[in-house]
Design a protein that fits this description.
Blueprint lengths: L4 H5 L7 H9 L1 E12 L3 E4 L5 E9 L2 E5 L2 E5 L4 E4 L5 E4 L7 E2 L5 E5 L2 E7 L4 E11 L3 H7 L5 E3 L4 H19 L5 H23 L14 H12 L7 H7 L4 H12 L3 H19 L4 H7 L5 H12 L3 H5 L6
Parallel strand pairs: 1-10, 2-8
Antiparallel strand pairs: 1-11, 2-7, 3-6, 3-11, 4-5, 4-7, 6-12, 9-10
């Protein structure tokens, strides 16, 4: 059979609804701090909007406090704060919490830092990191997640992946050189996706929140159709027929799970694609409009301004959304 290069090149890496969302989000910035913390120590982390914060215990242990909850982590345990909410972390001893801004952090490169902090007692080593999404769709994806996700070494499948990725991250941070920042960004992205996937797989039906759409085959199919062919002139009745539901039931179920009407979500998805292409590509506004089912630049611009809050030209110039 002849090799079809174009067909292979056009094949998406991940065609699932969640995969489509994650593939389109693009991490704008990722950085890591290799932290050696000696007893007694205690750190207060501030809330950082539009940020995913994570901590991976490489040696020793640490206790995390958030939402009036205390969570103790051991070696190779991992905790993710999907919405960047403030939290505390400490060692075994009682100590006053020091704010992050007061710590003696050493900047090795733009996206890699080191920290040696605490007293003269037993030490723990943590890899701490932060990832930033500028894409407006990121907030919808993350809004359905809890304050913190904890992955422990007792979960063998995820533990193996997290350990392997963390080893790669540690190796890269110990040999900082050309391309280190890009490698760290990609590894951090893989780590986060692995944790999100494991979290989704561990949930019972009915507890997924917005992400419960991924477990409803009919609504997931509707999302797949929208994601796969955003340029199509989809109508409520057309989508309902494609997934084998009545217009009324489809509209109600879609709104209940996704939070938007099907047509509003279609517009939002088109704008998210336009946003990515404006940020990372060089296509003309007209080309983007035609690819997304609009007949003119002005039609796309009106919809874009309404959904994103900025004009396409403002986004292309690098003015971030608020």
């Amino acid at each position: 059979m002849a090799f079809n290069h174009k067909q292979r090149a056009d094949t998406p890496i991940d065609d699932s609804p969640l995969g489509k969302l994650l593939n389109n989000l693009h991490i704008a910035t990722a950085f890591c701090t290799d932290s050696v913390l000696s007893e007694p120590w205690a750190i207060s982390m501030p809330t950082i909007p539009h940020c995913l914060m994570f901590h991976l215990v490489l040696e020793g242990n640490a206790e995390f406090q958030f939402d009036k909850t205390a969570c103790k982590l051991g070696i190779h345990d991992f905790i993710l704060f999907p919405r960047g909410e403030g939290h505390h972390l400490k060692g075994k001893s009682n100590a006053l919490f020091s704010p992050l801004a007061s710590l003696p952090i050493t900047c090795v490169s733009e996206r890699y830092e080191t920290l040696m902090y605490g007293g003269k007692g037993e030490s723990s080593r943590l890899l701490c990191g932060a990832l930033f999404f500028t894409h407006p769709l990121a907030q919808k994806l993350l809004s359905g997640l809890p304050t913190a996700l904890v992955i422990r070494q007792s979960n063998r499948h995820t533990h193996t992946m997290v350990k392997q990725i963390s080893t790669l991250i540690r190796t890269e941070t110990q040999h900082v050189g050309m391309g280190t920042e890009a490698v760290l960004s990609r590894l951090a992205e893989i780590l986060i996706i692995a944790v999100l996937r494991e979290h989704l797989n561990s949930l019972e039906p009915g507890t997924l929140g917005w992400l419960s759409v991924l477990s409803d085959n009919r609504i997931a199919k509707a999302l797949h159709l929208i994601h796969q062919s955003p340029e199509q002139h989809w109508r409520l009745g057309t989508l309902a027929k494609e997934v084998g539901m009545s217009r009324t039931n489809f509209a109600q179920q879609f709104k209940q799970l996704v939070g938007n009407t099907p047509m509003d979500y279609l517009t939002e998805w088109r704008m998210s694609l336009a946003y990515s292409r404006l940020q990372f590509g060089n296509d003309s506004l007209l080309a983007i409009a035609l690819d997304l089912g609009y007949q003119s630049e002005s039609a796309l611009s009106r919809a874009f301004k309404k959904v994103i809050g900025k004009s396409p030209r403002e986004v292309r110039r690098g003015e971030t959304t608020r």
